[in-house]
Amino acid sequence: MAQASTAIRSIKRDLPFNWEGRDRKGQKVKGRTVAQDEQAVRGELRRQGIAATKIRKHSSSGAGGKPNAGDISIFSRQLATMLGAGIPLVQAFEIIGAGHDKPSMQRLLMEIKADIEGGTSLHEALAKHPLYFDDLYVNLTEAGEQAGALESLLDKIATYKEKTEAIKKKVKKALFYPAAVLVVALIVTTVLLIFVIPQFETLFKGFGADLPAFTQMVINLSKFVQHQGVFILMVLGAGGYAFAYFYKRSRKMREFLDRAMLKFPIVGPILNKSAIARFARTLSTMFSAGVPLVEALESVSGATGNIVYENAVMQMRDEVATGQRLQRAMENTGMFPNMVIQMIAVGEESGSLDTMSGKVATFYEEDVDNAVDGMSSLLEPLIMAILGVLVGGLVIAMYLPIFKLGSVV
Q1: Per residue in 379-392, pLDDT tens?
Q2: Which of 281, 315, 285 has its CA nearest to residue 298?
Q3: What pLDDT digit, counting tens, does each position of 121-167 carry?
Q4: SS3 for 22?
Q5: pLDDT for residue 4
Q6: Is the pLDDT of residue 330 over 90?
Q7: Rounded distance between C-alpha atoms, residue 355 and residue 126, angstroms
Q8: Adjacency order of strands within the sheet including 28-35
Q9: What does the alpha-carbon distance between residue 93 and residue 117 come to, in Å, rounded to a whole number?
Q10: Considering only 135-139, 150-154, 226-230, 402-406, which range has the smallest mean pLDDT?
Q11: What is the spatial distance between Cα 323 and Cα 202, in angstroms, rounded to a whole number?
Q12: Strand pairing class (51-57; 28-35)
């Protein structure tokens, strides 16, 4: 217990330091290292034959926040590369941690490094941080340690993380673009209703004539937004908070929304292809690491990114566990295209399931790329038309009385 407390205190005191100095030849050198305090940095530099002239704590403005999936993906590639170069595991963690700009990521890597130095295996050290290293990551790492092929498995993990992160970014891009434009359109419309339309209303009062129905409707809408705007904003804020709250806590709600999004025009096919790509990529990675199929499917289910596909894969796992072929189990879900099922069947027959599922993943990853690019090209004129109708409609409504007055005169 005392040793554990000492280790925890040591972890908390480990900080990154930037240093400058001169080596034995008198040449200026600089770098970054992780240590408990400035004195420890000076001692380490002296052992390396460097006379330190300046040492300061490393601070990174704007690089706060928790480690994200992108950080873990980059770390995975760095660790695989360093182990491939023959660098010891503990030293690799020290180098990666010292070179990272995000303090939270530095602390995470130093905690894992301290556990490994204390005799904990890598997969056990990673399992202590489930927010950043899921069961799939830990299981693959354990398989690599047991097989004596940690470098090879880490390379597969790094490739897997890079591929899945790339597909996630593509899907986010597909969803973000139309959402962002609609928000901008809403903001522009609100600004016009609150600040511009009232100026025209004051002008129209001097006409002494009835306004066109369209113009009167826009003016009434403007008055409503002005008087009830704060209330509307509060309702929208409360609605957004309630949605986020229940979305995180209600699996049924997430399943309903995931199912609805899969059937949504334009976006739905992209989400379907993305889920299939992630299913195939994860299956390929797990199976090539020697993980049994039933166990692999359990990890694959959580990696699809969609509860509908997660349920389908868990159904497949149950059927495969009772002796059913994977091809037949996929057909029974009704979620996978015939081409995917046939390629998986070929993989089963030839004993190359990892290779064939990898080909499926590559095909659908490229298909998602093309679909996102095509959707962007399709949405651009559609979005311009929506903005034109919203803004142009307000402008026409305000100029209709002027046109009417001109025709009378």
Answers
A1: 778 778 888 888 88
A2: 315
A3: 998 999 899 888 887 888 888 888 887 778 888 888 888 888 888 88
A4: strand
A5: 36
A6: yes
A7: 28
A8: 28-35, 15-22, 51-57
A9: 11
A10: 402-406
A11: 78
A12: unpaired
What is the Cα–Cα distance from 159 to 276, expressed in whole angstroms? 17
352 phi, psi to nearest 5 deg: -125, 50
Task: Using the Cα atoms of residue 197, residue 199, residue 201 and residue 204 in order, give the sign of their dihedral.
Answer: negative
Residue for token digits 């873990």?
Answer: 72
Inter-axis angle of helices 103-117 and 69-84, to 10 degrees? 50
Cβ atoms of 361 and 288 within 8 Å: the answer is no
Vertex 337 angle, CA 331 and 342, to 5°:
70
Q: How many CB atoms lie within 10 A of CB 62?
A: 6
* Token pair in block for residue 138: 């830990």
Residue 160: what residue type? Answer: Y
CA distances from 356 to 159, 349, 352, 362 (A): 17, 11, 6, 10
Q: What are residue 56's DSSP bridge partners?
A: 18
Three-state SS for 282-310 is HHHHHHHCCCCHHHHHHHHHHHCCCHHHH
Note the pTM of the prediction, 2 decimals.
Answer: 0.67
Q: What is the 3-state secondary structure (H, E, C) of 104-151?
A: HHHHHHHHHHHHHHCCCCHHHHHHCCCCCCCHHHHHHHHHHHHHCCHH
- Radius of gyration for the chain, computed over Cα atoms and rounded to the nearest angstrom: 29
Neighbours of 274 (CB within 10 A): 26
Identify the pLDDT of residue 406: 59
303: left (phi over 0), alpha (psi -120 to 50) or beta: alpha
Taking every pair of C-alpha atoms in the chain, what is the biggest distance, in angstroms? 95
The one-letter amino acid at 406: G
Scanning the structure block, which residue is given the tokens 């004539």?
209
H-run or E-run covering 341: helix 338-350
HSE (side-chain half, CA atoms, 13 Å) at 45: 27
Amino acid at 79: L
Question: In angstroms, what CA-CA distances link 34 with 12, 94, 120, 177, 391?
Answer: 12, 7, 21, 41, 56
Given a contact cutoff of 8 angstroms between Cβ atoms, the answer to whether 288 and 156 are in contact is yes
Helix (H, G, I), strand (E, B) or coil at 21: strand
Q: Which two tokens stand for residue 394?
A: 């307000």
More confidently predicted of 60 and 295? 295
Residues β-bridged to residue 57: 17
* C-alpha–C-alpha distance, residues 157 and 159, integer Å: 5
The neighbour count for residue 81, using CB atoms within 10 Å, is 16
